[in-house]
Amino acid sequence: MKCTVHVMRVVSCSVDCPRLLLQSYTPEDIAAATVTALQRHLPVAVPGVTFLSGGQSEEEASRNLNAINQHTGKRPWALTFSYGRALQASTLEAYKGQQSLVKAGQDAFLKRARVNGLAASGKYIVDGTVAAGAASQSLHVDNHMY
């Protein structure tokens, strides 16, 4: 166990959840549910957990990871990210496959990487503004096996 890393999604509501129609769960709700699930089921001998973005928007994935790392419950594991799509969407939107926009794509990627690096240590300061563009768009794909 001491040489393994657990890879999972955060505990969250499915896109078909009736509560989503009335009220969404906060990152703090998701953090509490995720940390509780880990406390109940993951041995403390496992050194780390990496979270997949699992269809969340880039910003949602970052805010949830940040809240998990700020959660006051017992967290004996390193909690970080293994995002693919949640790092790519803004990058690809900025780059648009055009050589002249390579720098814009690199800047977008670097921004998401920095945000997630801060979130992995619970130091991402959410400024209250709503993320724009690809960072705010759900990356959920119907019937996709995560």
General description of the model:
The chain is mostly helical and 146 residues long. The protein is built from five helices and three strands; from the N terminus they run E-H-H-E-H-E-H-H. Strand 2, helix 3 and strand 3 form a beta-alpha-beta unit. Helix 2 crosses helix 3 and helix 4 runs antiparallel to helix 5. The longest helix is centred in the last third of the chain and has 18 residues. The protein is globular and about 50 Å long.
In short:
Helix 3 links the parallel strand 2 and strand 3. This protein has 146 residues and is mainly α.
Tags for this model:
146 residues; mainly alpha; three-stranded parallel sheet; 5 helices; 3 strands; 10% strand
What would you call the shape?
A: globular
Could you say which structural class the secondary elements and strand pairing correspond to? mainly alpha
SSE series: EHHEHEHH
Level of helix content?
A: 40-55%
Biggest sheet layout: 3 strands, parallel
Mean pLDDT: 83
How far from one another are the termini?
A: 24 Å
Strand proportion: 5-15%
Q: Give the strand line-up of the largest sheet.
A: 1-2-3
Q: List the total number of helices.
A: 5
Number of strands: 3
Radius of gyration: 16 Å
Task: Give the SSE map.
Layout: E1 5-9, H1 18-22, H2 27-41, E2 48-52, H3 58-70, E3 78-81, H4 85-95, H5 102-119
Parallel strand pairs: 1-2, 2-3
Helix pairs in contact: 2-3, 3-5, 4-5
